[in-house]
Design a protein that fits this description.
Strand order of the largest sheet of chain A: 2-8-7-6-5-3-4
Structural class of chain B: alpha+beta
Order of helices and strands of chain A: EHHHEHEHEHEHEEEHHEEHEEHHEHH
Shape of chain B: elongated
Largest sheet of chain A: 7 strands, mixed
Strand content of chain B: 15-25%
Number of strands of chain A: 13
Strand content of chain A: 5-15%
Helix content of chain A: 25-40%
Largest interface: A-B, 28 and 33 residues
Helix content of chain B: 40-55%
Oligomer: heterodimer
């Protein structure tokens, strides 16, 4: 049996309509969008420009402000390193926050090794950045603030409009990683004061290996130094022959999200909330990670106290999810995002991230509730911590024999 | 990660899950690990008058390999002489369960839990005069 896929914050199934849109661009319309001398090139360019428009519309941008990339990691690298290089004479201070994706954290760390100062803002227990602290962190030397819209692990939505306003007041460029919100949460680059925005196709039922970067062209005109050189494609900011089929797929995926913008997020929320209430009605001591209301529509991150994440997933191995537990990570460290919330490492070890998509059904959610509840009860039956807690032992006061 | 059939089997049908009376003079309890590390293992053993291990129980918070390691350990403990308990080595657990390198620490936890349980019980037995109050003998037994 194919397992139920509830890991849509990691990646998504390609929508068949997206694949259909892409297919002609492999064997028939295979031209290079930069070829100006023949029909093959023209039709490829036309398709790319149509996709630019489809992406731009979702975020209230002009299609000229969209640059195609190989995905969000590249987009974030161009935004952060490209801005830092372009505006180095203006200042050498960059601000980000602790729960960003590594594709933002690591470019910032790279800058730190190359003479820039980087401030990594803390977050509160819901994963939110404090606006006053952010304002205080800005100096005359600050050139860039990079703060994500929706968090990939815990779903928390940062107050991007307020951050954008703050950045405008201080003349600081604002970049936001919108991988988890593009096509799912309303975004308007004008209303939100966003200067650069990263998104990715494979999070919205498009193909892997393609994404887009929005770079503001006026009020103010933002310029990015290239990270990849050669050919001067994409207004010189991203050289390389355009991935036409991928770009067409991204455009189509964006269009589908846009067309269903009034209904689909509500459907995702309904599935997510059904899962949460179903689990909470069957199990005690289930804790929500992230913000209770300000969160992406498809993310549910729960900690099931006294049981460990990897062992839980073993109990419902026909359901694909992910965990913040150390055992599931290559580093054997629990999730740095959950750690940043201060919820305690033990709750990070007990966390499961469920993320739904348009392809999930109510039946799948109900099956998941039963399977997860059974696994958690099975494991709590053999958990010394659950027994101690039920006996009234305060686990935080126990002196553990650290291993 | 794919688990070995034996790990899955112990996970699905764990042996000897439960709790012995930790206040009993004939029960030794070993708890190792910490919640924030993602592993807490408790192994308990009970001996008869001749110091044969007549019962062993475990409870474990941890991954499937940690659960399987402690489940297997209780199986191996039952029927042994108390002094033979310390002959169970983590390497044997690794071999039996086909644990990958990243899960070796689970087997080490099981061995450490056994040691802690035996030490706890021997302390009680010495206190009650069942065993002589001789540290050397304890050291010899654990070698």
């Amino acid at each position: 049996m194919r397992s139920i896929y509830l890991d849509n914050n990691a990646t998504t199934r390609v929508d068949p309509a997206v694949l259909d849109a892409m297919l002609p661009f492999f064997c028939e319309k295979f031209g290079n969008a930069a070829s100006r001398s023949h029909h093959y090139g023209w039709e490829a360019e036309e398709a790319v420009e149509a996709a630019r428009g489809q992406v731009a519309r979702v975020i209230g941008a002009d299609s000229k402000e969209i640059i195609f990339t190989s995905g969000a990691t590249e987009g974030n690298n161009i935004a952060i390193k490209g801005i830092a290089a372009m505006y180095a004479e203006k200042g050498k201070h960059v601000i980000t926050q602790v729960t960003e994706h590594k594709a933002v954290i690591d470019p910032c760390k790279y800058l730190e090794q190359h003479g820039y100062r980087v401030t990594i803002m803390p977050v509160d227990k819901y994963g939110l950045v404090d606006l006053n602290e952010l304002s205080d962190a800005m100096t005359d030397d600050t050139i860039l603030v990079s703060i994500m819209h929706g968090n990939n692990e815990i779903g928390t939505l940062q107050p991007v409009a307020e951050i954008g306003r703050l950045c405008k007041q201080r003349g600081v460029i604002f970049h936001t990683d919108c991988c988890q919100t593009f096509g799912k949460v309303p975004i308007d680059v004008e209303a939100m004061g966003i200067d650069l925005l990263t998104c990715s196709a494979h999070k919205i039922h498009g193909p892997k290996g393609v994404g887009a970067l929005y770079v503001r062209r006026k009020k103010p005109r933002v310029r990015c130094e290239a990270v990849i050189h050669g050919g001067g494609h994409e207004r010189g900011m991203r050289s390389g022959t355009l991935n036409v089929p991928g770009i067409v797929g991204l455009g189509k995926a964006a269009e589908i999200c846009w067309e269903h913008r009034d209904t689909e997020p509500k459907q995702l929320m309904a599935l997510r909330d059904r899962l949460r209430s179903g689990l909470e009605s069957r199990l005690d001591e289930v804790y929500l990670n992230g913000h209770p209301t300000q969160r992406t529509p498809n993310n549910l991150n729960l900690s099931f106290a006294y049981v460990e994440g990897e062992s839980m997933m073993m109990g419902f191995n026909d359901i694909a999810v992910s965990s913040g537990s150390a055992c599931t990570s290559a580093s054997l460290e629990p999730s740095y995002v959950l750690k940043a919330l201060g919820v305690g490492d033990e709750l990070a070890h007990s966390s499961i991230r469920f993320s739904v998509s348009r392809f999930n059904t109510i039946e799948e959610i109900d099956y998941t509730i039963e399977r997860v509840a059974r696994a958690v009860n099975h494991l709590r039956g053999m958990s010394p911590l659950y027994e101690m807690a039920k006996d009234g032992v305060d686990l935080s006061k126990v002196e553990w024999a650290h291993h | 990660m794919a688990y070995s059939d034996k790990v899955v089997e112990h996970y699905e049908r764990p042996r000897n899950v439960g709790t012995l009376d930790k206040n009993s003079d004939r029960v030794g309890t070993g708890i190792v690990g910490a919640p924030e590390c993602g592993d807490v293992m408790r192994i308990q053993i009970e001996v008869d008058e001749d110091l044969n291990i007549v019962d062993a129980k475990f409870k474990t918070f941890g991954c499937g390999s940690a659960i399987a390691s402690s489940s297997l350990a209780t199986e191996w403990l039952k029927g042994r002489k108390l002094d033979e308990a310390l002959e169970i080595k983590n390497t044997e657990i690794v071999k039996e369960l086909a644990l990958p390198p990243v899960k070796i620490h689970c087997s080490v936890l099981a061995e450490d839990s056994i040691r802690a349980a035996v030490a706890d019980l021997k302390q009680k037995l010495r206190k009650n005069g069942v065993l002589p109050a001789d540290e050397n003998e304890v050291a010899a037994a654990s070698n």
